[in-house]
Structures are given as structure tokens and as C-alpha cells.
Amino acid sequence: MGWNSWDSYGTTVTEDELLANARFMAEHLKDAGWDTLVIDIDWYDPTARAHGYNANAPLILDEYGRQLPDPVRFPSAAGGKGFKPLADEVHKLGLKLGVHMMRGIPRLAVDGNLPVYGTEYTAKDVADLKHVCKWNPDNYGLNQNHPGAQAWYDAQLDLFASWGLDFLKVDDMQTPFHVDEIAAYHRAIAKAEAKYGRAIDLSLSPGGWMSTTYVDFLRENAQMWRISDDLWDRWEDIYQQFARLARWAPFQTTGHWADADMIPFGHIGLRAERGDDRQSRLTLDEQKTLLALWCMGRSPLMVGGDLPTSNDDAIALLANPALREVTAGSTNNRELVRERQFDGWGDNAKYRGEFIVWAADAADWADGTPSAHAGGHYAALFWTGDDDYDLRSNIQLQSIVGLDARDDDWTLTDLYADAPGAKSDVRIEGEGADRVITGTIPSHGVLWVSLDK
Question: What CDD domains does this protein's entry cite (predicted)?
Fold first, then answer.
């Protein structure tokens, strides 16, 4: 659960902006589980700009070709200090700091034929000029058949670990799926962790079409991996994640997470890649749907809005303690129902939307904290149509709690009861085994509940 600068600032975030978000997180969101801040791409490019990347950018590198922060945007990095002073400030707040990286080695290091730290090799020896990123011009690939390639990643990670970084989002790894590069980066992190005695989480991007065939390899080498391309504040983007998270939910394990991408809530687009300066265009109900789906699918939660200037509704949604509890403390997460709904019959039937139901079991513990719903269940009832949807008797209670417990006494709690705009009428009706969960689901909305004995 953290914050990433991409949706707000694209390639241009500054030290002051990062610290403003860190202080806001510590004061308003840390108790709800939010604890990580990530500086996204091009923190080493002094010419970085909104809405794109710069070809032949004068990247700031050390004598071994390793990226260093732009001291204009990050003044505490001046004099070769790197991100250590900034990491120290973030750690004082009880939070973690991460950065974005691109796969490979900077073109400038290759052009200058800089030495690979600790070896007799040079950047030209280890570069792979064929496997380069299609959308960012900064780097060449690395030839993982050359021993100096591993040494270059080892040196890069040693530098990052010496700064005290906790998290690395490494891009251009999965589309296409670069098996050797991912494994090499993992080995470099493991060496740095052993040397400096601190954990570094690895997040892989982008997603594209991600096959579950890779799951064992991904669990061995990373803590997070994207399962889609970039997501923005459009209902169409959220809708696409239903199928992706349903595919990946059976493979989610604590500590190794399929990632449905950043949460475009609050104040985004200040200097971002896409769109103008704005509060998120998602409706309040669409925001609730996103959070409930991400949690039921156990996706990591990385919000993209500038926290100090985001609207109060967005912050209130992020502060909901159910987010951490369900993401960290649920098991057996699954899609139960996905049915297209129509008005009328036959050739005159008009498509309305999809009724989708997810369920999960509550664990005894959630992220080291006793679960408020241990022994119970969670359910999320989604509606994708453009009008409200009356549940009537569409979902039986026993389909969530199981046939063996269908006659037990169950209490329903609305997990969004205290959320902005709360007006849910979700409830249990009927007797015994005939009980149903009923209510009205708003357009593009969700009813998200816990069920407890």
C-alpha cells in the first residue's frame, strides 16, 4: 500500500513534492496501512518534462554508468549523496522509499564505454543493442550471456541499497517477458540485501497480456508483477481488470502479488503523461468499485494522486481500514458469478450490464493484526451497467458462506457504511437456508460487505 508519483507528476516529481506526500501519508494514511512512496521514471534526467520522454537526454550518471538523482529536482542528492538523505527523511516518518528503474544499461554509459564496477569489462562489452525498450530511449538491453551483465546489475543494486531504498519498480521487464533479465535483477537484489541487511521489494512492469504460466517463476523472483498496461481514470480501464483479476486471484499468495496497477484517485495529471491537471474523472461509485475489486483480488494498492491536494472524498476512501484487512487478511478469493443482464427477451432484448460477485474468507490475522472478521467472509457485488441494479433474490447467502453454514446466524456489515456518499441499502432478507443478500447497486458500483457469525 503506497503512493507513486506517475499519475500526478509523470517524469518530473521533485524532492519537495515527494516529501509533501510523505508527510501527508504519515499523518493521514499510515494508520490505515499506507507506508511506501515511489519516485517514478527519469529522476536522473535533468531535462525531464511532462507528456513524454527525451531522446538523447543528458542523464546524470556516476563514473560506472549508474544513475544518480538530478540535484536540481532533488537538492539533497547533490555532491554524490544520491537518495540517501531523502530515504533517511522518509524513514524518520516510519515510511519506505522506492524508485522506478528501466531494464538495461544507459546508452550514455555505452557511448562513453564506461567501466563496469569491480570488473575488467566495459559498458560496450555487456550491452545488447538488439533488445531495447520500444517506448523509452534511455537504455540498451544487457547481454545476460556475458558475465559482466550480472556485475553491472550487482553494482547498480549495491548503490541503491547503500542509499537505503526499500522498493524498486523495474520497467520494460514483462512485455515481452525477459526471463534472464528478471532473474539477474533478482540475484542482484539478493546480494544487496545480504550485504546491507535490509529487504528490497521488486515490482515488475508493464503488464500487457500476462500469462499465469509464469507464476512460479514470478514468485521466486519478485514481490509484485503488473498484469495490465497503464490504468487511468476511465471506467473502461477498470472494467478490463475484472477478468484479469479473476484469472489471477487463485494464484495470489501473501508476499507475491499480481498487480492491477496504480489507483488514479484524487489530484492527478499535474504534469503527467496523459490528460490535464484534474481531480480523478472516476465517479465516487467507480472509485469504490476499483478499491473493492483490487482488495478482493488481493492486488497491491498504489495510489497516484497528489495526496495533499486531493479531494476529501478520495482521502476518506483510502483511509478505510477494510482495504488493508481484506487485501492482507483474506483467503480463497474468487469470482463466483459473472452474468450478462438484459431487459426483455429474444431478439428485442437490450443489454444492460454485468452482475459480478466476488467472495473471500476472512483470515484470523491481517498484516500482523487480529482480523475484525476472523471466521467470517467477505463479498463484493458489482454492477457494470449504466443504471441502478435491484438485486432482488439474485444471490443466496449460502453461496457465500457455504452449504454447511447456511443455517447459522450471520450478521452483515457494510464495509462502505462510513464512506463518502454512503447510501447503501444492502441487507440480508429471508429465513434460514432461503436467506438472500439484497439491495440496490448503483451504476458502475458495488455493495461490499463482511459476513460474521
Answer: GH27 (cd14792)
Q: Look up the CATH number of domain 332-452.
A: 2.60.40
- Can you list the positions of beta strands (E) in 166-293? 167-171, 201-204, 224-226, 257-259, 267-268, 278-279
State the architecture of 2-319 in CATH terms. Alpha-Beta Barrel (3.20)
What is the pLDDT averaged over residues 132-152?
A: 96
Buried/exposed code over 44-74 (b: 16+ C-beta within 10 A; e: otherwise) = bbeebeeeebbeebebbbeebbbbbbbbebb
> Is this prediction's pTM over 0.90?
yes
Distance CA 413, CA 423 (A): 14
Q: Are 65 and 29 in contact (CB under 8 A)?
A: no
Measured over the CA atoms of residue 21, residue 23, residue 24 and residue 30, the dihedral's sign is positive
Please tell me the distance from the alpha carbon of residue 383 to that of residue 394, in angstroms, as a whole number: 12
Contact 86, 27 (CB under 8 A): no
Q: What are phi and psi of 450, to 5 degrees?
A: -115, 155
pLDDT tens-digit map of 96-132: 999 999 999 999 999 999 999 999 999 999 999 999 9
Helix (H) or strand (E) holding 159: helix 147-163
Task: Give 298-308 pLDDT, tens digit per residue.
Answer: 999 999 999 99
Q: What is the pLDDT of residues 324-370, one digit of tens each?
A: 999 999 999 999 999 999 998 888 899 999 999 999 999 887 777 77
Residue spans per domain, the chain: 2-319, 332-452
CB atoms inside a 10 Å sphere around CB 135: 10
Helices (DSSP H) in 171-234: which residue ranges? 179-196, 215-221
